[in-house]
Backbone:
C-alpha cells in the first residue's frame, strides 16, 4: 500500500480538503482456497456525529470483489451487530462507494494483479480488531470450479447470505465509471468533502445503500 500519493502541484488542494489518496496492489492467487484479500477494517465515528467516515475506491487494473458488512455498534461489538452484507464486483475503470457504518474487505479474484486507488479522510486510523477477532469477514469467497461463498462461523446465524452484484454508477452524485479517479480532486471536490463531513451527504449514503439492497 502506498499512502498519501499526489502530484506536487495538488498538495495544497489535498491538504486544504483534508483527504488522502492511496494506492494498493494485491497479487493474484489463493491461500487455502481463498482468494488473496485485504485484512479488512472499519472506520471510526466522526466526532460529534453518529456516522463513521466513508471511503471511495477506484479499480485501476484487474477485477475486485468488495465485501461490505454493516454495523452501527462500536468496537468488537460490531461482530454481533452485523445485519447485512454485500458483495460488489468491480472491474477496471469502475468506482465503489463505502458508505458510513460499513466494514470492508477487498478481494482479488482475477488472474492478474489488482491495483486499487482510494480517497479517504486523512486524519483517522482504521479499526482492524473487530474483523481480526472474528477471524475474517462475515463471509469467505473461495475459488473452486465455481465461486463459493461460505459464512464465517463467527457471523450471526440470522445474517442473510449475500449475492454477488455488479458495481453500478450513480452519476448524479459523482460516482462515475471510466473517468480518471485521481481527477475527482478537480472534477468533484464537493464529493471528496463528504468524506470528511459525511453528515452533509445523508442523501448520497441512502442512495448507495438503496442501490445495493435493490441489486442484492
Residues:
Amino acid at each position: 500500500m502506498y499512502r498519501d500519493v499526489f502530484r506536487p502541484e495538488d498538495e495544497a488542494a489535498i491538504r486544504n480538503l483534508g483527504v488522502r489518496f492511496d494506492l494498493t496492489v494485491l497479487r493474484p492467487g489463493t491461500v487455502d482456497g481463498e482468494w488473496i484479500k485485504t485484512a479488512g477494517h472499519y472506520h471510526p465515528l466522526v466526532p460529534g456525529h453518529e456516522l463513521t467516515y466513508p471511503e471511495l475506491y477506484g479499480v485501476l487494473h484487474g477485477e475486485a470483489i468488495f465485501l461490505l458488512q454493516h454495523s452501527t455498534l462500536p468496537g468488537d461489538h460490531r461482530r454481533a451487530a452485523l445485519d447485512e452484507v454485500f458483495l460488489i464486483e468491480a472491474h477496471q475503470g469502475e468506482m465503489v462507494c463505502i458508505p458510513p457504518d460499513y466494514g470492508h474487505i477487498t478481494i482479488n479474484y482475477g488472474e492478474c494483479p489488482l491495483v486499487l486507488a482510494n480517497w479517504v479522510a486523512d486524519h483517522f486510523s482504521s479499526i482492524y480488531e473487530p474483523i481480526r477477532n472474528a477471524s475474517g469477514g462475515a463471509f469467505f469467497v473461495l475459488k473452486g470450479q465455481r465461486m463459493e461463498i461460505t459464512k464465517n462461523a463467527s457471523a450471526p446465524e440470522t445474517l442473510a447470505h449475500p449475492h454477488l452484484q455488479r458495481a453500478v454508477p450513480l452519476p448524479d452524485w459523482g460516482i462515475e465509471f471510466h473517468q480518471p479517479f485521481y481527477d475527482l480532486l478537480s472534477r468533484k471536490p464537493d464529493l471528496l468533502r463528504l468524506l470528511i463531513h459525511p453528515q452533509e451527504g445523508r442523501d448520497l449514503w441512502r442512495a448507495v445503500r438503496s442501490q445495493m439492497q435493490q441489486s442484492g
About this structure: The mean pLDDT is 94. The longest strand covers residues 19-26. The two ends are 30 Å apart (CA to CA).
